[in-house]
């Protein structure tokens, strides 16, 4: 055993299978440092070209482990404030700080546990298949790949050039951002969830109280939902999955939906070009764009509004009060409202069905004809 008030051990190669300790400061340094024993102190520092630990390194106040080349930990590195750094950091053990935990390196690989009050993991390449958690947790890198668990009871932030998640990223407030964000796992925040990037691809689950997904290109074949509000926006938004919320808003230069966009209250879909072959539903549903093309279903329990420069419908537009308007409106499908149905435009062409399902068909015919008598050929089904 080596111990004292202040203890320092150094050498070209240092190997410890015993106990090195101090009441104040403990310092171990060398070219290659290997610990299978215990290194403890008030402030504990272990450094070298390469540091390998399968024992215990701890400081009641501060613990620092750093290497010029490689840090390999299969043991325990603990402290009040714990810092681990190296060109390559590989952890299959436990790294923790009751206050702050910081792990950084060129390449950081974690298959173990990294925990702290505030936990920060950063590197050029960060790969996690273990657990990273804290009160506030931040993971960042040029390339971040997570197949494990990243969580923060308050705030969780994951950011990088390329962020790939097939695991779980959770928190009170959860933010994931990157040039390219690909999610096939679960991203969730009990309060707010924000996912943003140049290209955002989701085949998993993105959920929260308020959920926001944005990017130059957003592609969703999974589930995006917010118990309160859900917002999806981008240059190009393509949905073949489910976008749901209390209030749901989807917007983009080009919006293409072959899946389901819905809300319990208000659903709004807007864009330069909006194409729907799926389902857009809500308490109140609004679809608008320079060009709106619907061969699917647009519906609401209360009010349904479809408007645009060019509106083409070969599907179903239904609601309590249903309004369709545009510079050019072409209908070969079904437009109906249980209370009121209004179709208006500069040019209105109807070869489908326009009706109020609880009122005589004749009333709807006169409404459309008055809008554009020279260009309209109104038909409707018998009233039901």
Task: Give descriptors for this structure.
384 residues, mainly beta, 1 helix, disordered C terminus
Description:
This protein is mostly beta strands and 384 residues long. Helix content is 3%, strand content 83%. The chain has a 20-stranded parallel beta sheet. The N and C termini lie far apart (93 Å).
Task: Chart the SSEs and their pairings.
Elements: E1 2-16, E2 19-35, E3 38-53, E4 56-73, E5 76-91, E6 94-110, E7 113-128, E8 131-146, E9 149-165, E10 168-183, E11 186-202, E12 205-220, E13 223-239, E14 242-257, E15 260-276, E16 279-294, E17 297-313, E18 316-331, E19 334-350, E20 353-356, H1 361-371
Parallel strand pairs: 1-2, 2-3, 3-4, 4-5, 5-6, 6-7, 7-8, 8-9, 9-10, 10-11, 11-12, 12-13, 13-14, 14-15, 15-16, 16-17, 17-18, 18-19, 19-20
Poorly predicted runs of 5 or more residues: 359-367, 369-384
From the alpha-carbon coordinates, what is the Rg to the nearest angstrom?
A: 30 Å
The rounded distance between the terminal residues' Cα atoms is: 93 Å
**SSE order in H/E notation?**
EEEEEEEEEEEEEEEEEEEEH
Question: How much helix is in the residues?
Answer: under 10%
Structural class: mainly beta
- What kind of sheet is the major sheet? 20 strands, parallel
Gross morphology is: rod-shaped
Question: Per DSSP, what share of the residues sits in E-state strands of 2 or more residues?
Answer: over 45%
